[in-house]
Amino acid sequence: MALRTAAQFLAGLRDTREVYYRGERVPSVVDHPELGVAARHASIDYEIAENPIFRGLAAHREGSEEYSAYYRVPRTSQDLLSRSKLIEAGTAEGATLVLLIKEIGTDALFALKRVLGRDGYADGIQRVEALYRHCRNNDLSIAVAQTDVKGDRSRRPSEQSDPDMYVRVVEKRVGGIVVSGAKIHTSCTPYVDEVIVLPSRSMGPGDEPWSLAFAIPVATPGLRLYASDYLHGTDDSFTRPISTDHKMVETLTVFDNVFVPWDRVFYVDRPDLAGATALTFVEFHRFTAVSYKLPLLDALVGAAIAIAKANGIDRAGHVRDKLTWLGGYAETVRGLTELAALRCKLENGVAYPDVFTTNMAKWTFARDFHRAIETVQDLAGGLLVTGPGGKDWNSPEVRPVLEKYLSGAWPADRRMAIMNLISDLTTRLYGGYQAVLAVHAEGSIEAEKMAMYRAYDPSRSIALAMRLAGLEIGPAAK
Amino acid sequence: MALRTAAQFLAGLRDTREVYYRGERVPSVVDHPELGVAARHASIDYEIAENPIFRGLAAHREGSEEYSAYYRVPRTSQDLLSRSKLIEAGTAEGATLVLLIKEIGTDALFALKRVLGRDGYADGIQRVEALYRHCRNNDLSIAVAQTDVKGDRSRRPSEQSDPDMYVRVVEKRVGGIVVSGAKIHTSCTPYVDEVIVLPSRSMGPGDEPWSLAFAIPVATPGLRLYASDYLHGTDDSFTRPISTDHKMVETLTVFDNVFVPWDRVFYVDRPDLAGATALTFVEFHRFTAVSYKLPLLDALVGAAIAIAKANGIDRAGHVRDKLTWLGGYAETVRGLTELAALRCKLENGVAYPDVFTTNMAKWTFARDFHRAIETVQDLAGGLLVTGPGGKDWNSPEVRPVLEKYLSGAWPADRRMAIMNLISDLTTRLYGGYQAVLAVHAEGSIEAEKMAMYRAYDPSRSIALAMRLAGLEIGPAAK
Amino acid sequence: MALRTAAQFLAGLRDTREVYYRGERVPSVVDHPELGVAARHASIDYEIAENPIFRGLAAHREGSEEYSAYYRVPRTSQDLLSRSKLIEAGTAEGATLVLLIKEIGTDALFALKRVLGRDGYADGIQRVEALYRHCRNNDLSIAVAQTDVKGDRSRRPSEQSDPDMYVRVVEKRVGGIVVSGAKIHTSCTPYVDEVIVLPSRSMGPGDEPWSLAFAIPVATPGLRLYASDYLHGTDDSFTRPISTDHKMVETLTVFDNVFVPWDRVFYVDRPDLAGATALTFVEFHRFTAVSYKLPLLDALVGAAIAIAKANGIDRAGHVRDKLTWLGGYAETVRGLTELAALRCKLENGVAYPDVFTTNMAKWTFARDFHRAIETVQDLAGGLLVTGPGGKDWNSPEVRPVLEKYLSGAWPADRRMAIMNLISDLTTRLYGGYQAVLAVHAEGSIEAEKMAMYRAYDPSRSIALAMRLAGLEIGPAAK
Amino acid sequence: MALRTAAQFLAGLRDTREVYYRGERVPSVVDHPELGVAARHASIDYEIAENPIFRGLAAHREGSEEYSAYYRVPRTSQDLLSRSKLIEAGTAEGATLVLLIKEIGTDALFALKRVLGRDGYADGIQRVEALYRHCRNNDLSIAVAQTDVKGDRSRRPSEQSDPDMYVRVVEKRVGGIVVSGAKIHTSCTPYVDEVIVLPSRSMGPGDEPWSLAFAIPVATPGLRLYASDYLHGTDDSFTRPISTDHKMVETLTVFDNVFVPWDRVFYVDRPDLAGATALTFVEFHRFTAVSYKLPLLDALVGAAIAIAKANGIDRAGHVRDKLTWLGGYAETVRGLTELAALRCKLENGVAYPDVFTTNMAKWTFARDFHRAIETVQDLAGGLLVTGPGGKDWNSPEVRPVLEKYLSGAWPADRRMAIMNLISDLTTRLYGGYQAVLAVHAEGSIEAEKMAMYRAYDPSRSIALAMRLAGLEIGPAAK
Questions:
Q1: C-proximal residues of B, 393-412, CB under 8 Å
Q2: Which residues of B touch A312 (CB under 8 A)?
Q3: A372-417: per-residue pLDDT in tens?
Q4: Mean pLDDT of B181-185
Q5: Which of B234, B320, C8, D122 could serve as a FRET partner for C227 with CA atoms 20 to 30 Å apart?
Q6: CA D127 remoteness from chain centre
Q7: Closest Cα to residue D95, out of C276, B444, A469?
Q8: Is the ipTM of this complex over 0.85?
């Protein structure tokens, strides 16, 4: 089957899916004034593949077949670099907001392949492969529901007072299983075709019912999506040049006795696989993450340079110092992302980005993002939160006043365009969204640090220290 | 005259003032759906003085007269501490948002007194004193318009291509002067009685027309206020527990050939006084600033502790580490603020907070505020930007689902109340507003550093270093 | 009895004490080429009291008695401020190196008073009081041995494979107890009169033998002091203007079946008192610590200013930025120290510095000290570690070459004097000593954070957050 | 000619060179108790090439010729990676101290090739080529004297009160030029064969006499080397496991009317080439720098891990956090160094490491080195500066006491070996040396930031920001 168009993708969303927004059932996601914006943002993924500029990057030809390049199994560093570039390009087209309707799903599929491949569980391998072919051949979009609602974070799944705090099997039938519980922070669920459900943590003995992985179409009975209205929009594109047209939506994803046929169950009752899945998926997904963060960082650096010029302060010493820091920060993330691909590990012919380097890139991104925000706000000025709105700007009476008085070293229209870009990126709903994502998406900073701690290979550094200290490395150094 | 009530204050705003909002002239500020919220927030200043709990702090009795304690001229450390406590209490009643309709005005009046007192300009001194008595005796509210629109920041006032980039005298008449130009970031202008206009920078030869200070009633012909709609509200108090009812409004404050009678002109054509005024006002005003930042910091610390408990993570080592940092940050600001009052300098019987210590408090606040935001977001979780809205919460169908799945170690209603408080404080419009204010209000971080550099007394440290190095301190050390 | 002179103090050290240095028993500490330097440095404590400039600060008159002001029990904030000033003055006379032969001992005595007073253990109270009077009336010097050698840090005292890893009672006799084990990092032990021994951690059931506090004269049989040669000196005062004449010495303090008579045992077998003692002592001692750090910080700031001038870079923007940061850092520590005294708590008529504020001061000092070092080194230049030595400087042939080529904006002799001061403070043995002390002395940064976490009063911040969130504070917030 | 042996190298140093140490002329560098240590450390460079393990890395065969791999002109990323590995390996053999007797010289030669190649100055190109062949074919060692003594940093060369503050031409003769002045911080000068002299800054009109580059043998009349005694050694290898046997020496390098024949003068009177040379050399040399910093970072990370285990604290949360940070810091520097080679630019067939990436690596290294020091000291403990010396350890009487009481989770001998390694690396003379080098060697942090600012290509980020803001990039964005 050929690649789908954006229109075909959107048409495919018109089904029986059960989505709620602001307390009400949504009859049609595509036609909804808010969710439709998100769906059309996501459809950029399909537009790119139609666009001659990006087609080489976005479409992959294998023999006579052509499919979305997201589904290409990476075999080399170059494949990983291409995947990273594709994600970066899609996000730049999405105006710094990731599209995320194939990236994350393929991350999950590649992760499941690896975990089940290592385990050798034949049924699971075959079912993952079947889903992969189904999605690839039909050019489908996929969400991944991983983070459970978790209840009391100090308790394990089986210790929770309500067993539904982690998604679980409530019944096994001949044809499949029945699952209940809820996931949270599930991105794009209302406007994708399939949802893959993965465990969110390591499990132990007693956690069997919560140790499962499966996939279902979004329009499956019992699956209820409660969409967040956090990015509820406005029509003021003057002050929100990005977020008026670009948004992503997360759901509380409730499984109310949802039936999943066996051919969609990758494994069940396998605490030993749960932690490996959670970890492997995140390892992959963080490479996606650092790839899609790059346009956001570029936009911040570029906007900082532009506003410094627009304000007439770009020659001041402290301004150059801040711009240098910003550029160094952004390019360290980019460099480490590139390096994670170059240092990839091959396993069963599949190239996996280097785990330590990927996490180092993500950690570098996450721990200084708020400082980057502060720096850009510092260069821009208080006008970020005291400036005029679109109705002022469009008023024939007020506009001349603003044009006269809000000019800097650049005319007011150009200066305010950059100012509002920064305001959208850093102070309004979209800014808050990106700030929280920096800290929490694809795992918290603490999770990244744990991943680094586990993945760090201390052999060279310990060997050197022991040699310099005149010591054998022997068992006591372990 | 007695203290005014909140109702009297609001009634006083019904005059001919020329205010624009979203491109349209506002017939009545008090009755306007957005500006009215801001005016009522400001009126808390008057409510406090009526409240027996705060009256001792908010009202000052001098002989038979009673007036607002903001107008009390501080004579001792204790007076400054009381002033600081009053500002802190008002801001806490304002739900972390400063009221700022008397604080800033009295900062300006005390600063003018000092600058003109040092200079000995008798006319100016007398006019300031007259305005002070007028405002105090009639319990008036005051805005201060200081920051000019500035045009190209790399040029001085007289070098700008448009001379109106800094407010200036365009004509002198027998009865007064005529001024033109515009100020920006003027807080509360639409809903106060008077506005004091001060220079925003040092001036030199050639800058005479821009070197003036004066005051006028807001309802003066030619004064036009273009209010920012940045904090334009919503009615969703579930997700915005603070900002639904509390807002402050800034204006682009345009002077279109405004006539100012001589008895309201403090000085004109005095480049030598301009810089001193700008600096002295900011020195005072930063003491106000660090006082009003304290409830915001307390709210962040308290919310962080609460959400850590609500999520069930408060016993984790890294969580305690973060809470300790937050507490240490907030209390360092509080401690230095207190110390700035205790170390006050007396001049002509007036107590001025110590400049170095005040700036050190502000600098401490400003340079770590974004890190504080990051820390609180880290503890709270992604639900800050993926959670339900008020309409979800109020839906009888959806509410039970949310109550079941969004509980943590605390029930969902309590957990979400704290989560939304944090969201309002850090991720939504109000959060962005506070973040930018942290960096820019009352002067940028660079301005605070310059103030510290100037105010630092190096005599003890240089003397010690020279003695330890075996050197005389002589002229070469200067 | 009157205050002793420095000569009397030094004469008092000539006794049977058992001190080892570089593997050899030291016959006379005072006459030893290295330990004698340290003893004479310590004797500055006595010189100060003889010096008219400092006598008012250093000597306290109570009725007809006069005694060292270190022994004055603080009753008010002013007493604590005076104590702090005395410590600061002594350290400045000691060229940034604390004297520490009465500060720490009185910290221990005041701490024991409080702990035993709360417990009501009459025998202990009386013995502490007796020791206090003995030391005060005879103007004695005191070391405090607290930190045990600890063995494996992951095990409690009773879990160690060798029970001597914490000092313990090995036998109880009619006349007293016999103790064994070792303390480490004990400052000044070789050249004081008495040593007070305190537990270094909280103890639990099973830890009784390790739960004791006592004091003995240094010249007690079985007490062996192994002095560190870390600060072993040179005679090159050109490159070490401070450390040629000023040093402090720490010992491994071994108790080899030392007999302690009952009147010197404050308590024994009291796990419940051990933790309280350890904590209370450190609370006091950190106030001493932040007081004695101030001259070190002043010296760094002063030297930084001087070297910037000497190099001719003091007008560069980044240099001013760095100097401002340094000054702000130093003055924040000073300000919080002052505030800890002003916020003192009275207990049984004794004034204790505020625990949270004291720890905040120490934490502020410790976590940025290395950055301060970096900043000063940055301003000074590579000459810190590539410059000439004293023999070059004193060579008639080489000196003119150095004077010609090592001049900057200041002549070479003045520039090199400051350069070497900075080198001694930051790059040589003394610099390393101060850097490690910043991190570890009086407790590590982690210990300071734990103390802050425990001492923080969250009631105001939680109350505000709960009110803003519309919640009752009820039990769930606890 | 074949590669020389270490013995041949050392024998070659026995000539008429004029070296001073501690005020006295040194008759033979190799036989000098201090300088000899440094010379033997440097000779590791030659030993490596004799060692079969390293020979493949250290020796390069080109046709029938074999020469030191330092002299290989890099043509590809792989060549640069090999060069980096060679530098890293040499430094690891040098126990974290770079050898620097060929690295820096070839950096200078490659830089001169590029600068003169761009300029097309045929005489200069030919002379550089001749020197390159001479050094390569005779396997010579080279120092580079770049940093001038500079006098008052706020003045240019021609503005100094003494014209010798920058090295300059004082006379031109038929056979060559005569130069005077002095350089500072010249590494390894006393024990290399040749010294290349480069300008240290950009020059302008009027600076002609100071705008020159040349090379001379160290044993040239009038060249006087005043060696710093900063790293003057001790024989206590217990407490200084590295620095007892490894040291580098810097000189004040004085040119007292030194005659340089024309074939050793690369250019003279060329202000236009001076800045380009200074910059290009430093660009190359920083790639050397980040390569040789890696073993130092590895040693810190390895020692930190080892001491955490030795102390028994490696399972504590805050310890893991600190180790993770250390590892992330070290590996970011390593990753960016690798990337600088992978992103090399080809010019005239020569591969130059990417300037922005190289500087980013160096900047990353430099701005967190002191924090790394602090972290390692934090994990190690106060014993770094209060522990026993070698004479204690070697005393039959004291040793058993130390073995008993200084054990941790590791026995005392192993624990103290790591402790002393850390003490040598961070607190003693060698530690101070490395700390200052981190800030100043190969340019200060400010210099690295300036290099980053200049080398940053803003086109992608500005283009994205302008597009998102709806603006053309036109001239106003420039």
A1: 410
A2: 151-155
A3: 999 999 999 999 999 999 999 999 999 999 999 999 999 999 999 9
A4: 98
A5: C8
A6: 25
A7: A469
A8: yes
Q: Of A54, A98, A439, which is closest to residue A296 (Cα–Cα)?
A: A98
Residue D235 touches chain C, beta carbons under 8 Å: no
Taking only the tens place, the pLDDT of each residue in B193-237 is 999 999 999 999 999 999 999 999 999 999 999 999 999 988 899
CB C56 within 8 A of CB C72: no
C-alpha to C-alpha distance for D457 and C216, rounded to whole angstroms: 70
Confidence of residue A1 (pLDDT cuts 50, 70, 90): low
What is the helix (H) or strand (E) element at residue C168, kind and residue range?
strand C168-172
CB D407 within 8 Å of CB D453: no
Burial class for C65, CB neighbours closer than 10 Å (0-12, 13-18, 19+): exposed
Could you report the per-residue pLDDT of A211-236, keeping only the tens digit for each?
999 999 999 999 999 999 999 988 89
| H-type alpha helices, A12-121 | 35-50, 52-58, 77-93, 103-119
**Distances in whole angstroms, Cα of residue A247 to Cα of each of A41, A244, A287, A417:** 7, 8, 22, 20
The span from the CA of D338 to the CA of D361, in Å, is: 9
Residues 239-278 of D with CB under 8 A from A: 241-242
Show the CA angle centred on residue C430, arms to residues C428 and C436, nearest 5°. 105
Q: Inter-chain contact D392–C226, Cβ cutoff 8 Å?
A: yes
How far is Cα B476 from Cα B473, in angstroms, rounded to an integer? 7
Q: Map tokens 């008529």 to a residue.
A: C349
- Name the pairing type of β-strands C65-68 and D194-197: unpaired
- Compute CA distances D222 → D20, D180, D181, D199, D262, whole Å: 13, 9, 11, 19, 17
Place of tokens 């410094």: A308
One-letter amino acid at D77 equals S
- Six-digit token string for B284: 């005072």
Residue of A nearest to B433 (CA): A385
What element of type H or E holds D6? helix D6-11
CA distance C252 to C189: 9
- In sign, the C-alpha dihedral spanning C21, C27, C30, C31 is negative
Option in B155, B381, B427 nearest A435 (CB): B427
Which chains does chain C touch, 3 or more C-beta pairs < 8 A? A, B, D
Residues in chain C, total: 478
Instruction: Give the residue among A81, A149, A95 at the shortest CA–CA distance from A421.
Output: A95
| DSSP single-letter state for residue B73 | P
Q: How far apart are CA D195 and CA D197, in angstroms?
A: 6
Q: For residue D314, how many C-alpha atoms fall within 13 Å in the half-sphere facing its CB?
A: 18
Name the residue of chain B whose CA is nearest to D321's CA: B318
Q: Cα(B18)–Cα(B413) distance, rounded to whole angstroms?
A: 44
HSE (side-chain half, CA atoms, 13 Å) at B66: 10
Take residue A171 and report the two structure tokens written for it.
């019944």
Rounded distance, CA B455 to CA C323, Å? 12
Side chain identity, residue B143:
A
- Whether chain C has a CB inside 8 Å of the CB on A476: the answer is no
Q: Cβ of A436 and B427 within 8 Å?
A: yes
DSSP D70: G
Instruction: Look at phi and psi of residue D98 and say left if phi exceeds 0, alpha if psi is from -120 to 50, else beta.
Output: beta
- Nearest-angstrom CA–CA distance, C83 and C73: 10
Q: What is the DSSP letter of D74?
A: P
D302 in Cβ contact with D156 (< 8 Å):
no
Residue of B nearest to D316 (CA): B317
User: D318: which chain B residues are within 8 Å (Cβ-Cβ)?
Assistant: 317, 321
Residue B180: both structure tokens together: 């033109």
Phi/psi at D18 (nearest 5 deg)?
-110, 100
Closest to D324 in 3D by CA, of B320, A449, C92 = A449
Identity of the amino acid at A33: P
